[in-house]
Design brief:
heterodimer; A: about 300 residues; alpha/beta; Rossmann fold; six-stranded mixed β-sheet; four-stranded antiparallel β-sheet; 12 helices; 10 strands; globular; B: two-stranded antiparallel ribbon; 15 helices; about 70% helix; binds adenosine-5'-triphosphate
C-alpha cells in the first residue's frame, strides 16, 4: 500500500519554522498560536500545551497515542470546550471567550472524530447548510423566497461541484443516515469546505475510509493546500502523515513532546517514548498498531 | 341506537373551532419538537397565556381585540424567553422539565383566590368577546346544513379559527422550506455539527421556541373565544393531547397537526357518543354514565396506540425516515 501512495510524491512545504525544531518552535508565518492552554477533567490533565504555532498554508499533522489530548485540544481551539487557563489566537485575533459558531465564521472550520452527519437531512441539504452568509437564514427574510432563491441556487451549484469531487453526487437526494461510515466522513469534510475556510481542522478524517478512497482524500487535502488553505489534522495512519504532512506535532499526555518535519520527527526519542512510553513492560494492546506503524516508518526512511 | 346523532356529532368535530385550536397548538409543537427537536412540555402554559392575555385586558381595560391579541403575544414571547434563556444552552431534557413546571405554575397562579379580582380564579372570566363580536359578519340566528348547524356566533369563531390556522400553516411552510428551516432541522439532528458550521444555534433555538409558543398562544385565544376562560382547561393533560395529535399526524409536517387534530376530535366524539348511548341502551350494565365519560379517553388512547404502532411516522409523516430512527 505504501508503494501506491508514494507513487506521486506531493510537494512538501519547507522552511516553516525558525531555529531548531523543538516543541513550541516559532513559525515563520503562524496562523494559529496557543499559549499555556490547559484543560483538566477532575484530577486528569487532558491538555497542557505551553506554546504551539501552526504554520500558515501548510499541512500539519497532530499525532499522539490514544488519550493524548488531541481531540480535547481541537475542542479548546474551536470553542467547543473552555480551557482552565491559557490564550490562543487565530489570524492574530484572540479566540478566548469566542463562541464556537463565531470561530467557524472567522474561517476556522473543524470536523469531528465521531462523525456528525445530519441524519434526516439529505446529503444536499447537509452541504447547503455549510455555506455561510446565507440571507435566507434570517427568520424574516426566509419568508420571502425571492430574497434568497438566487443565492440558494448558487450554493447548490457549489455543493454539487464539491459532491462530485468527493464522489457523493449520486447520493445527493438520499438521507445522510443512509450512508456508510466512510461516506459520512467524506460528507462531513465536503460540508466543511462549503464555507471556504482558511483553516480546516480534521479529526481523524481517514478513520473508516477504504484505501482506494483514502488515496483520493489525500489528493483532496493536498488540493486544499494548493488552493491556499491551511490544514491541521489528527491521524493515526502514519502512512498518511508521512505522505502529506509538511509538519508534525506530537502530543502525549496532554503535552507537545516533539515537533518537526515528518521525516525527522519520527527519530526523536521523545516520540518513540510517547508511543511506547509507560507501556514498555506491559501488554501493548491497542497501542501495538502504532508501534508497528512507527517501526515500518523508521524502516521505510532508512 | 341513534347512529345518525353519533356520526353527526362526530362530523361537527371536523370543522369545530376547538379542532382548529388544537391543530394550531400542535403546529406550534411541530415547530418546537418536529422541526427543531425542542422538548416543550408546557404548550398548555402558552395557551393559557393566550386565553388570559386576551381576556384580562378585554374585560378590565376594555382594550380593542387587536391590542388584546398583541398583549397575549407579548406575554408569550416573555414566557418563551424566561424558559429558553437559561435552558437552551443545556441538554434538551432541561427545557422539558422547566416547561412542564412553568406551565403548572402559571395554571396555579390563575387558579388561586389571591388574584381573584383580576383572574376570576377557578371560575375564570367570561363575556370578554364583545369587541370582537361587533365585527361578526354573520346575521343573527341558527343556520347551516346537515349536522353543521350553529348560531352566528359559533360560525364567526369557527371561521376565525380556521383562518388563523391556515395563515399559521402557510407561515410555517414558508419558514421550514427556507434556509432558516434548514438550520433548525440541522439543529434537531445534531446541534454541535450546526454550530461548527458557524450558525448561532442558541439564537435559532430561542427563535423556534418563541414562534412555536406564539402559535400555542394564538391557539389558546381561538380555543377560548367560543367559551369562558377557565384555568382548568390548561392542565398538563392538554399538552399531552396536543403531543398525541402531533404524533398522530406526523411530527415534522405542516398538515400533520391539522389532520391529527381532526382525527383525534372525530374519534373522541364518536367514542363518547357511542359509549354514552350504549350505556343508556343497557349494553354496558356494569358502567355508569360518569365512568363512560372516562372510557372514551381510554378508547382514543387505544386508537392512537394502534396508529402509532402501525404508522409510527404519523398519518402524513415520511415513511422513508423510519428506517433511520435510532
Ligand atoms: N469530557 C471528558 N470528561 C472527562 N475526561 C475526558 C473528557 N474528554 C476527554 N477526557 C480525557 O482526556 C484525555 C484526552 O482525551 P482526547 O479525547 O483528547 O484524546 P485523543 O488524543 O483525541 O485520543 P484518540 O486518539 O483516542 O482520539 C483522555 O484521557 C480522556 O479520557
Ligand atoms: Mg481523538
Amino acid at each position: 500500500m505504501s508503494s501506491e501512495i508514494t507513487s506521486s510524491r506531493p510537494v512538501k512545504s519547507i522552511g516553516l519554522h525558525v531555529g531548531d525544531a523543538a516543541p513550541g518552535v516559532k513559525k515563520v508565518d503562524p496562523i494559529l498560536i496557543a499559549d499555556g492552554v490547559k484543560r483538566t477533567f477532575g484530577g486528569l490533565t487532558a491538555v497542557d500545551v505551553d506554546h504551539v504555532e501552526i504554520p500558515r498554508g501548510a499541512i500539519t499533522a497532530l499525532i499522539g497515542p490514544n488519550g493524548a489530548g488531541k481531540t480535547t485540544f481541537f475542542n479548546l481551539l474551536t470553542g467547543f470546550d473552555k480551557p482552565d487557563t491559557g490564550s490562543w489566537s487565530f489570524d492574530g485575533r484572540s479566540l478566548a471567550h469566542v463562541p464556537a459558531y463565531r470561530v467557524a465564521r472567522m474561517g476556522l472550520i473543524r470536523t469531528f472524530q465521531l462523525t456528525k452527519s445530519l441524519a434526516l437531512l439529505s446529503v444536499m441539504e447537509n452541504m447547503k447548510l455549510g455555506a455561510k452568509n446565507q440571507v435566507g437564514e434570517n427568520l424574516f427574510r426566509s419568508l420571502i423566497p425571492a430574497i434568497w432563491r438566487k443565492q440558494d441556487t448558487e450554493i447548490e451549484v457549489k455543493a454539487m461541484d464539491l459532491l462530485t469531487r468527493f464522489k457523493l453526487d449520486a447520493k445527493k437526494d438520499d438521507y445522510a443516515a443512509s450512508m456508510s461510515g466512510g461516506q459520512r466522513k467524506l460528507l462531513e469534510m465536503a460540508r466543511a469546505l462549503m464555507s471556504d475556510p482558511t483553516l480546516v481542522m480534521l479529526d481523524e478524517p481517514m478513520a473508516g475510509v477504504n484505501p482506494a478512497l483514502k488515496q483520493s482524500l489525500l489528493d483532496h487535502i493536498l488540493g486544499l493546500k494548493a488552493e491556499g488553505m491551511t490544514v491541521l489534522f489528527v491521524e493515526h495512519d502514519m502512512h498518511m502523515v508521512r505522505h502529506i504532512a509538511d509538519w508534525v506535532i506530537v502530543m502525549a499526555e496532554g503535552r507537545v513532546v516533539a515537533e518537526g518535519d515528518p521525516h525527522t520527527v519520527m527519530e526523536d526519542p521523545a516520540v518513540i517514548d510517547a508511543y511506547l512510553g509507560a507501556h514498555h513492560d506491559i501488554d501493548l494492546g491497542a497501542d501495538s498498531e502504532h508501534v508497528e506503524a512507527l517501526k515500518e516508518l523508521i524502516d521505510d526512511e532508512q | 341506537m341513534d347512529w345518525g346523532a353519533i356520526f353527526g356529532n362526530a362530523a361537527v368535530e371536523l370543522i369545530s373551532p376547538t379542532t382548529a385550536a388544537y391543530a394550531l397548538a400542535a403546529l406550534g409543537l411541530a415547530i418546537h419538537f418536529g422541526f427543531t427537536g425542542l422538548l416543550n412540555f408546557g404548550q398548555a402554559g402558552f395557551m393559557l397565556l393566550g386565553a388570559y392575555g386576551y381576556a384580562i385586558p378585554a374585560i378590565h381595560l376594555g382594550w380593542p381585540f387587536w391590542a388584546c391579541v398583541l398583549t397575549a403575544l407579548v406575554a408569550s414571547v416573555i414566557f418563551a424567553l424566561i424558559l429558553g434563556i437559561p435552558t437552551l444552552r443545556l441538554r434538551a431534557d432541561y427545557l422539558a422539565i422547566v416547561t412542564i413546571a412553568a406551565a403548572e405554575v402559571l395554571r396555579l397562579i390563575f387558579t388561586t383566590n389571591e388574584f381573584d379580582a383580576v383572574t376570576g380564579s377557578a371560575s375564570g372570566l367570561s363575556n370578554y368577546q364583545g369587541d370582537l363580536l361587533a365585527l361578526n359578519p354573520f346575521p343573527a340566528g341558527r343556520y347551516g346544513f346537515g349536522p353543521f348547524v350553529f348560531d352566528n356566533r359559533v360560525w364567526f369563531f369557527l371561521l376565525l379559527a380556521w383562518i388563523v390556522l391556515a395563515l399559521a400553516a402557510v407561515f410555517t411552510w414558508l419558514i421550514m422550506r427556507s434556509p432558516w428551516g434548514r438550520v433548525v432541522k440541522g439543529i434537531r439532528e445534531d446541534e454541535d455539527a450546526v454550530r461548527a458550521l458557524g450558525k448561532n444555534v442558541y439564537s435559532y433555538k430561542i427563535q423556534s421556541l418563541i414562534l412555536g409558543g406564539a402559535l400555542g398562544t394564538l391557539a389558546g385565544i381561538v380555543f377560548v373565544l367560543p367559551r369562558a376562560v377557565v384555568p382548568s382547561y390548561f392542565q398538563p393533560s392538554l399538552t399531552f393531547f396536543i403531543y398525541a395529535i402531533l404524533l398522530l399526524g406526523g411530527a415534522a409536517t405542516i398538515l400533520g397537526p391539522i389532520v391529527g387534530s381532526i382525527v383525534f376530535w372525530v374519534l373522541l366524539s364518536f367514542f363518547s357518543g357511542f359509549i354514552s348511548r350504549a350505556v343508556e341502551a343497557g349494553w354496558l350494565p356494569f358502567m355508569t354514565q360518569v365512568q363512560a365519560g372516562q372510557l372514551r379517553f381510554i378508547l382514543v388512547g387505544v386508537a392512537i396506540m394502534l396508529i402509532v404502532v402501525f404508522m409510527p411516522q404519523g398519518i402524513l409523516g415520511n415513511r422513508k425516515e423510519l428506517a433511520f430512527v435510532k
